[in-house]
């Protein structure tokens, strides 16, 4: 990957303010959902790595960490599979943005994009 780490916070800020609001003009509800996902992810990383959110480096966010985060959402927070998939979509979107900004992080983004949503049951009518 890269020799010097990339702080995660500036990517998140630019993603939420520039990409989500300005460039893609996503709805307020989508913006809040993405924000809440990243808030939860920061909390999970802070516990896992015993670090402050401002000290999180992008390279600390691996596919294994994201998998563990999603499992934590389901098992400890009691989130439904559909909510888990929504959180994963937000993380995919963020890492698509990051890979466009810093080509050295394309490999990391590719590993995270390889994570597929879990299947949900389709309610019968």
Task: Describe the structure in your own words.
The chain is mainly alpha-helical and 125 residues long. The protein has a single domain, classed as Orthogonal Bundle (DNA polymerase, domain 1), CATH 1.10.150. The chain contains 5 helices and no strands. Helix 2 crosses helix 4, helix 3 packs antiparallel against helix 4 and helix 4 (81-101) runs antiparallel to helix 5 (106-113). The longest helix is centred in the N-terminal third of the chain and has 22 residues, at 28-49. The protein is globular. The chain starts with 7 loop residues before the first helix and ends in a 12-residue tail after the last helix.
Features:
mainly alpha, globular, DNA polymerase, domain 1
State the low-pLDDT regions, or none: none
Which outline best applies? globular
Q: Portion of residues in helices?
A: 55-70%
Arithmetic mean of pLDDT: 90
Give the topology string: H per helix, E per strand: HHHHH
Number of strands: 0
Which CATH first-tier class would you pick? Answer: Mainly Alpha
How many structural domains in the coordinates? 1
Under CATH, the topology can be stated as DNA polymerase, domain 1
Please name the CATH architecture.
Orthogonal Bundle
Whole-angstrom Rg: 15 Å
Alpha plus pi helix count: 5
Largest sheet: none
N-end to C-end Cα span: 49 Å
Strand content: under 5%
């Amino acid at each position: 990957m890269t020799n010097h780490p990339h702080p995660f916070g500036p990517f998140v800020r630019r993603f939420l303010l520039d990409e989500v609001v300005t460039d893609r003009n996503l709805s307020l509800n989508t913006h809040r959902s993405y924000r809440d996902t990243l808030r939860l992810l920061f909390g999970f990383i802070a516990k896992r790595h015993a670090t402050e959110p401002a000290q999180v480096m992008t390279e600390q966010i691996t596919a294994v960490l994201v998998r563990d985060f999603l499992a934590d959402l389901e098992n400890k927070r009691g989130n439904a599979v559909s909510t888990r998939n929504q959180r994963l979509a937000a993380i995919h979107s963020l890492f698509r943005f990051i890979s466009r900004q810093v080509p050295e992080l394309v490999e990391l983004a590719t590993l995270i994009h390889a994570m597929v949503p879990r299947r949900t049951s389709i309610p019968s009518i």
